[in-house]
Write a structure and sequence with these properties.
With 436 residues, the protein is an alpha/beta fold. The protein has two domains: 276 residues, no CATH class; 53 residues, no CATH class. It has seven helices and 20 strands. The strands form two sheets. Strands 1, 3, 4, 6, 7, 9, 11, 13, 15, 17 and 19 form an eleven-stranded mixed beta sheet that branches. It has a nine-stranded parallel beta sheet with strand order 2-5-8-10-12-14-16-18-20, covered by helices on one side. It starts with a helix and ends with a helix.
Length: 436
């Protein structure tokens, strides 16, 4: 039975142009149908058992059909430590789920970008198409995003002509700004990396409002044969926000996907990854760090699907939880019957800095052949007291020792990144934050 909140969202979806005949309009209809059938998840569902989203029902969320003002882009991305690191990168910004029509697109070598709307009936390239890899069944927030799909940022990266050229980089910032009301926004990003091409993508979500809001992103990624993507996700939404990220990746032969997700803002935040290794010798590295305080709920769910032989995947997620915060990690490595010679490793580790912080970890293996090398594990605990005492015996204050140990614990997941400026800034930030 459809509940009141679901009905409000369904009614608000009717604000969108129902007369359009574009591919986006067809996808909206598909998304709305899926959302009607699923509704919002609840704790009776196994995949949502530890993630209570009922607080969303207490907020009167409304859809922002258009950007508040063309002046939104005048807001500078300043204030947070990570924004200072990214300030010189080519950036495209969506405000309240939309890129303004008068926005100037960044000029990135070997990268083509297009904003797809109802006025477009053909994509920039066949690969950069919304709906190509996103799965809606059993993903209610992805279905909701699709039901409100008015615009998609479509990015295609081509191979560089000269081996000496540097890897192109692009920052896509999803920002929420509202002077009143409680908006819900649904940005869509499509990334297509062509054969033997590479790209560094930084994707961020943030809010410049004190009002509770919901930001619900879908990111679709297709890596062709020999392609490489370094994907950095930074979730730094406002303290009262509800933040949901749905990331879908399809990799062809010899493609490499390296992901680092930093989950630190919002009242409730959840990232869902579905990575499908479709070509032999594809490699996936799925790492992340979540840092919670107050009564935050930070959740990560992931599925890495090994569909063909000779693929590798590794996953390392770490959590640092303080106050009354709760962390959730649930990862699944799914090895299909024909995916022989698979190597897959998954680890979850969490550090609790208070007696009331909690972490629910459930790493899982689902393997349908016996010619594999797979392992998984999880640990939850406090600071190493021997190391803590050792640092104090060398003259460090308790707070400084705490900061050093916490930064060392949290630093491991992003060591795979080649973006040294960001890794250094994050290490410094952790050391300072937990030495306070």
């Amino acid at each position: 039975m459809t509940q009141e909140l679901e009905m409000r969202f369904i009614e608000q979806s009717h604000q969108l142009d129902t007369s359009a005949t574009s591919p986006l309009s067809a996808l909206r209809a598909k998304g709305l149908k899926s959302f009607r059938e699923q509704g919002f998840p609840n704790s009776r569902m196994e995949e949502w058992r530890t993630t209570d989203i009922n607080p969303i029902r207490n907020v009167n969320l409304s859809y922002l059909h258009k950007i508040d003002s063309p002046q939104c882009d005048q807001h500078a991305l300043t204030g947070a430590w990570w924004r200072a690191v990214l300030k010189d990168l080519p950036t495209v910004t969506s405000w309240n789920g939309h890129v303004a029509a008068n926005s100037k697109h960044p000029d990135v070598p070997c990268v083509d970008m297009r904003i797809l709307t109802d006025n477009d009936h053909t994509p920039a390239t066949p690969g950069a198409v919304p709906g190509r890899v996103a799965e809606l069944d059993e993903y209610p927030f992805a279905a909701l995003n699709t039901a409100f799909l008015e615009q998609a940022i479509c990015v295609t990266a081509a191979a560089v002509a000269d081996d000496g050229e540097t890897q192109p980089a692009l920052h896509v910032a999803h920002c929420v700004s509202a002077t009143d009301g409680n908006p819900h926004v649904h940005p869509r990003l499509v990334i297509h990396v062509q054969p033997n091409a590479s790209l560094r993508l930084i994707e961020s979500t943030c809010g410049v409002t004190d009002q509770p809001y919901l930001v619900n992103t879908v990111t679709e990624i297709v890596l062709e044969e020999g392609a490489s993507l370094e994907h950095i996700r930074i979730q730094d939404d406002a303290p009262g926000a509800f933040s949901f990220g749905n990331i879908y990746v399809r990799q062809e032969a010899n493609a490499r996907y390296v992901s680092f997700a930093l989950n630190m803002g919002a009242a409730i935040a959840r990232n869902e990854f579905l990575v499908d290794l479709k070509g032999e010798h594809a490699e996936c590295v799925l790492n992340g760090l979540y840092t919670g305080s107050r009564s935050q709920l930070l959740d990560t769910h992931s599925i890495i699907r090994h569909s063909v032989p000779h693929c590798t995947s590794s996953e390392l997620y770490k959590g640092i939880m303080d106050g009354d915060s709760r962390g959730v990690f649930r990862g699944l490595i799914h090895v299909l019957p024909h995916a022989i010679k698979t190597s897959a490793y998954q680890t979850s580790r969490a550090l609790l800095l208070s007696k009331t912080a909690k972490v629910h970890a459930k790493p899982q293996l689902l393997i349908f052949n016996d010619d594999v090398k797979c392992s998984h594990g999880a640990t939850v605990g406090g600071l190493d007291l021997d190391a803590f005492f050792f640092l104090q015996s060398r003259g460090l204050s308790p707070s400084r020792a705490r900061g050093i140990l916490t930064a060392a614990f949290g630093g491991e997941p992003f060591r795979e990144l080649e973006f040294s400026e960001l890794t250094s800034a994050l290490t410094d930030r952790l050391r300072e934050q937990y030495a306070e």
